Fold this protein.
Amino acid sequence: MSNKIIPYGRQNITQEDINVVIAALESDYLTQGPKILEFEREFAKYVGSVYAVAVSNGTAALHLCALALDVKEGDKVITTPITFAASANCVKYCGGEIVFSDIDSETYLLDIEKVRELLESSPKGTYKGIIPVDFAGRAVDLEAYRKLANEYDLWIIEDACHAPGGFFNDIKGDRQNCGNSNFADLAIFSFHPVKHIACGEGGMITTNDEIFYKKLLALRTHGITKNELEYQNSVSFANGTDNDIINTYPGWYMEMQALGFNYRLTDFQAALGTSQLKRAEEGLVKRRGIATLYNEAFKTKSFVKGQSGVVEGHAYHLYVIEVEDRLGLYNYLRENKIFAQIHYIPCHLMPYYKQFGWKEKDMPNAEEYYKNCISLPMYPTLTNDEQKFVIEKIISYYS
């Protein structure tokens, strides 16, 4: 192991992945072709949603969701401070206001009771929506959030970037997949290289609402539609055929009906994503196996806290532990070419958000978590020998 770098996460590209990308590059379409729709349909089937919209990255997915929900200046939206900044930034892109609420110290997820307290402390209508995050791959109980959101007339965007294949069991005991949109209005995923499904860059939005679906399709392509049934200008304005027998717009015609963006995914990225999706369940099995080995190694170690066995439905994008002397361990692991990572610096303490009045001690659970958290190597191609090496180095550091 002395010469090999072990990262916290990495992509797994097979020869089949390479072959499908080459085939897409040799086809007639590099973008806006048939591979996009194929990927969308297969992904929707995988998570159990009605619709899926492929976009350029997870941040674009969040931004489009906020646009589709008509987030505007002054709208207040609740999210967790323990997430990648994009979960909060998407609201700011639209002029809205982010209100952070603390995490549960055991699950690291947005604490629903603290969200309830926040809602109860303000008049109804103060808040517009909630963005819960399936942090590290652990599924949020969205059934409970839906019930709370309905009490206060709030929408929900599920940030499921860490959790394709993750799930929770609802009150009836039925499995609810992350991103199936049975309880959230919209859900989003990322296809960054360290995620379960890698496209280089890329994202997906899932929903069961046809109105949102149509809005998203237009917003990802400059707000332009080519659907004749949606046109607002007349056939004569478009220089089409307009008489008693036929009323037809010309083939070149299109309309920009909203201010959208170029957030499209390419066909060769979609081809890679579809190929990766075929191995998604295999990857989950391996991730959960890795989590099991870590749990067994650390369950009796006094220097590790925060582990309570493999969690059902956890997708294990990350394997996070809390430790004493986190900085010392981080540096020691890097000296041994183990590139652990920290997820995340609390968003409310980023300088950008501090300008809005957020300060230390506002989110005590999130801040305490940040002092001790470290993400260990977790990816399907991590070998047993590599994982044992990681475990041995952590134990030797504290010995």
